[in-house]
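pasting Putative glycosyltransferase for the record, 302 residues
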Amino acid sequence: MSAPLPSSSPPEAAEGAEGPAGPERRVRLAGVDLDPLTLRGTIELMLGALDAGRGGWLVTSNLDHLRRAGHDPSFRAMLAAADRVVADGMPLVWASRIAGTPLPERVAGSTLSAEMAAAAAARGRSLFLLGGNPGVADAAAARLREDHPDLVIAGTHCPPLGFEDDPEAAPALRAALASSDADLVYVALGSPKQEKLIAELRGEGLLPGAWWVGVGISLSFLCGEVSRAPGWVQAAGLEWVHRLAQEPRRLARRYLVDGLPYAARLLAAAAWSRLTRPAAATFRPAEASGAAPPAPGPGADA
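structre below
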């Protein structure tokens, strides 16, 4: 009897794959290709691309992304269209290791948002903040300026609810972005709305030289509207428990009803993949930063 697989996902749990991101091997989990990058490697890759005049789209993919991609072909296609997809969630890192195709570490979107802003300030790159609750983008921009006086904030914009169908709001959003000439765009609308918007705007050719990143709740973390878990909780991989305690009504279904069973199936499928794959197929993706993989810990970014 075969091991259970994540529902609606392709049969592979984890295997090497080459994709649009580059010539190095990628890691495939439940039909989604991920790049074997560390946090530092991701930042340097984006900055290097900007220096070369190339923009792109980075997705920090968590367990919910994989689950959604398994039953939503359009969302799976969006992830495939992104230039880089990194693992934001320890279940993804665990599954890759169990399957013998290890990802080097979790690249948390919330951590990346802060670290990338610091790197952008040091390199003279500009940042646009889009989304969040009313006032959050402005508050996050103020906090980032306080922490990094050299950071160029190219603009902020908080579209109203239902802006996609608003004949005035959607053009205003596009105009704000187009006039900013930003190098980096953080889109904080939650998934899958932020991925859909990024795919649409990039498809229209808006800011082709910028890097777009869907950052979820990260702007609320940056400005202090919502607190991140203590460092030791993050290190233990229990950040999802902290987030569940903060917003039980909103997150209970995602983490407990959908997430935990899916994670169990993903890990079981990874183990089955390892057992049934020829030994020669196992590989260890090269990581430019050379960082050692961290100790395992559960959790996924909100």
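The two ends are 35 Å apart (CA to CA).
The first strand starts at residue 14 and ends at 19.
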